[in-house]
Amino acid sequence: MQKKTIATKNSHIDNTKDILSYMIRTYLPEKKRIFDEYDLNHAEKFCLFESLSEKYRNETFHSDILFSLLNLNTPEIGMINNEEILKNFISLVDKDNKFTIDSSIKIKKECYNFVFNGMNKKRGYMDLLITNAHNQAIIIENKINNAPDQPNQLVRYLKFVTENICNGNSSDIFIMYLTLVPGKYPEIDSYDKNQYDNYIRKLLDAKEGKDGKILKYCSAINSQDKENSLKFFLEKSMEILDKNVNQNDLANRKKIFFEQYKTLLEHLGGNMVMADKELIKEIFKSKDNLETVRNLNEVYSKDVLINSYITDSLKNSMESKGFKYEYDNTGGGLYYPMHENCKFIFIGGDYRNFQIAFGIRGKELNEAERKPYADILEKYFTTHEAIPWYDKKLLMQWVFLEIEPLGEQNSMDEFLKDCTKNIDGIIKDFNNSINTKRK
What we know:
The protein is an alpha+beta fold. It has helices at residues 2-37, 48-52, 61-70, 82-90, 153-164, 193-203, 230-245, 249-273, 277-283, 287-300, 303-319, 367-380, 412-419, 423-438, and strands at residues 106-117, 120-131, 137-143, 173-179, 215-219, 324-326, 333-337, 343-350, 353-360, 398-403. Strands 1-2-3-4-5 form a 5-stranded mixed β-sheet. The protein has a 5-stranded antiparallel β-sheet with strand order 6-7-8-9-10. Strand 4, helix 6 (193-203) and strand 5 (215-219) form a beta-alpha-beta unit. Helix 1 (2-37) runs antiparallel to helix 9 (277-283) and helix 1 (2-37) crosses helix 10.
């Protein structure tokens, strides 16, 4: 019976290692690639749209932005390199340059349309519609915020534009199906063949992401086909605007508009891609894998275990420096040196982080008393990302900072060695501050 228990235990440990190995070999390199490509390492980078509100999550937001970027009549920036930029956008769907770009072009948003089903009138609104005087049109169906498809949506739009705008000619009509990232497609097979059969046939050559003559797939972010993305359009447009930036303040404003929208799409697209289905598949490949992940999550969520692990890892090296271990319900810690005035240095694990602190048992420190200890922390930890000592929410009898593992280090041992490499200097300065006050 004992052997079975040991075997089961070893099996769980081996399975844990397998899951972690998969994450290290496959998931983490892919995550790094995505973070680099979509600039997610700088997710805090200023983005006007994200800073103002969460309106960018609304269905019509991206249509409003595109309308402003492409429309000739947008105040101040509308006429700046507009024809070049519009041509750049249209080339996403019109690879053969069939669409005529001239003064007759009109761009409408939330364009009203209707079709009849018997005596019933079905109304709708196209997100964006670009037309000219040559029976040509581009319908833009915006799904960047993953809006659901409506019944017969694309064929209704195609029928309306063909019969009411392009004089019955559908040969020069394009539909751009615009998503955030590749993978979302219209459900053409569910369309009503009794009413729209002729128009459905015109879309059947475009399925599962493959462009047809009319229906074109485009994504805001597409790492596999970058030139067929809204991001690529924005980058090319900024290159166009660069020609005038130094001479024209309005061109600079327009370029900033493009840059800010590109940043938003990178953040949205990168986060969307990071919904890693491959990792989920690996987790649910077996009961053992699922149980392993649950166990890992349970263990990692226990602060006291992590605090104790950090403190225990420090014990030998810190006790040789004069620290003494004291246990408490957070995992304990190492204290030095406990003078008669109850002043101390604390080192250990707390809140899942490495913590170093100065304090006085049972007494609050005023600003003057806190200052020398704060100076010591700032002297020795300038290169570490840490909670600042002056945080007003901290308990006033403590002056401390916390450093989250592992930073730039590869293991806990390396991390703690780096955090405590200046401990002799810290102890010396601590003793000097006490001796100075005694004098």
